[in-house]
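Recall the central idea of this unit: under ordinary conditions, the amino acid sequence of a chain determines the structure it adopts. In this exercise we apply that idea directly, starting from the sequence alone.
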Amino acid sequence: MPQLAEPTLAEGEPAKSPPARRNQATLIERFAGPAFLVVMFLVFAALQPDTFPTYNNLIAVANNQTITALVALGLLVPLAAGVFDISIGGILTLSVILSTLLFQTTDGDMPVPVVILATLGVGIAAGLFNAILVVRLRIEPFIVTLGSGSVFIGISQLIANGKVISEHIPQGFTDLGRDEPLGIPAPLIYVGVLALILGYVFVMTPLGRKIYATGANREASRLAGVPTDRILYLAFMTSGVCAAAAGLLYAMRIGAGQPEVGGQYLLPAYAAAFLGSTMIRPGRFNVLGLLIGLAIIAIGINGLQLNGIPSWVIPTFQGAALILAVVLTKLRGLGR
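Accordingly, the structure predicted from this sequence is:
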């Protein structure tokens, strides 16, 4: 049987084999996002050289995204496990109101660690409530968390009586959100620690593989011995405690409890998570991709605002990023 001549791209150059083409496509998919971030940064730096690339501006942009980052990192676990959690805005709002109310009702005498632990406990309880409805009663997660989020916001309005809580907030509490150890804002350290923990769990542990397996095919994973119900409990409770931590950070930085603050973080958190799933580890929700996606959104909004774009650009840019991420994910699936 005669052999076919090897196709060439140019004189004396063999064509790339199909595996090589697939590897090249994967490389492009993984690093297109970081490359876009670099290009966008250089463009804005050239347009606003005196303001955009400065340390003060960039550290302020990063610090302003820490609350969104905490929420989005918490979302990674349920998303990787194949479920949505829309209640994070309500949990965040409830934690803001609860933490500040505990100080106000005790004239600031309640110890800061007790308030922090109590608030985080409420976040865990809220996640457990969602998990019970989803796992035990088999209710659609989107419906459960959409409803529970509204319930948590309603409870927040009830206990706050529609007012901003700002009395007797101790400085020891607010310093936790405003201090800059070694010149680094404390919130950035919190986000870094959480990102390292979740990144290690997802990449280096059997638990991370079980979370991804549950999200890929829950029933098949259950038949293979993965404790999918426990994974879902863990996912919702992790999301709840991270949303509560974000609420604590909000209260620490603002020094007051404002009702209905959580809703503004829902869209950017989901946009960052889905955008991150299109890079670094395409097709999987991952920590590094999420942080890069969040940076793309934050840098894009900051650069546009410095160039005179009005405030409506913020929700528009965030929504466009979310739609783009979903479209890219869909196209990638069709391509496969």
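Strands lie at 8-10, 13-14.
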